Amino acid sequence: MATQYRYLLADVLTNQIIAELSLTNVNFTQQLNAAGTFTGDLLLSGVNSAGLNVLNSTIPGRCAVYVDRSGVLVWGGIIWQREYDSASQDLKITAREFESYFERRRITSTLSYTSQDQLTIAESLIQTAQAVPYGNIGVIIPSTISGVTVSQVYYSYEFKTYFNALSDLAKNNNGFDFNIKVAYDGDGNPTKTLQLGYPRLGNTYSSISASVPTFILPAGNVVQYNYKEDGTKAVNTVYATGAGSNEAKLIATGTDATKTASGWPLLEDSTNYSNITDSTLLTGLANGQVLAASYPPQTLQIVAPPYADPVFGTYNLGDQARVVITDPFYPSEFDGNYRIIGLNVSPGEKGPERVTLTLTTTSN
Q1: Smaller CB count within 10 Å for the chain: N or C?
Q2: What residues are paired with 21 via a beta bridge?
Q3: What is the CATH number of domain 5-98?
Q4: Architecture label for domain 231-293
Q5: How many CA atoms are closer than 13 Å to the CA of 112, on its beta-carbon side?
Q6: What are the backbone angles phi and psi of residue 127, rounded to the nearest 5°?
Q7: Which CATH architecture has domain 214-229+297-361?
């Protein structure tokens, strides 16, 4: 049976489906710990736009779009832009995953947490954001713990976004992954649920195994790949500054002494977390940044047919994957352990469906 895509438009606050549109040139991405994007076009020439409720269902900031792939919701987010060209009669909409809503929300009342589990704080941030009038977009919030406690104050006068507060918390050396996942409930209604994973989301295999998603080139399921290393982002010493001013400013240093001991030059960077008052959390943030980038960050993008094993939908963001490559760049065969951190999907209404996975190295 051929894969079928449907595009459902909904009101952000009520989550009521208000239209279904036949979009073309669709492309959508999913990102771990960030908001993925969606773009799609609607040709209005010869279309009963009033009958389809086009104008009212694509209002930026007020409407959302869900992507249904053969009966399974695979993407959801808020429309932030639409653009109409009268010459081509083409309407283009641009959306971002529901995480993007919390980029538009500010902490306006001081929030203080003392020795509380980091996941409890994360849940509280989203609960607080949704507790004010007109601020509840219906994200379901779980109750989970990590065993890692931190102390943190978010001052009202800083007007920090809820997303930045959540993201900073997650970047700690003992931090976590987060994602808002969409799915149908038992009655066929779209839902969105906050997912928190400590120490990470996705499968937790500790070694390369045949049971993890495996991608093989040339005699396998990989059409092409792109490999990139970026030395401009490598750092082996990070100076993290926290709350306070001048000599009283909280400072933590994270280092990877193994790199300089093995011949690497000193590579420094600094980062500012002005609302961090907990020295342990600040040190964890500094160490986390060093661990993530002490070697030039490696990014691998592979194009894999969605119908080939492992088929699209059987792997998720955060999952560990095995990549086996033999070609001129890896003549002796590369057999590596990577982690899926992004997905880029083109439904392919004018050609084959195309899935591009973004992976990074992992030691887990």
Answers
A1: N
A2: 7
A3: 2.30.300.10
A4: 2-Layer Sandwich (3.30)
A5: 3
A6: -60, -45
A7: Roll (2.30)
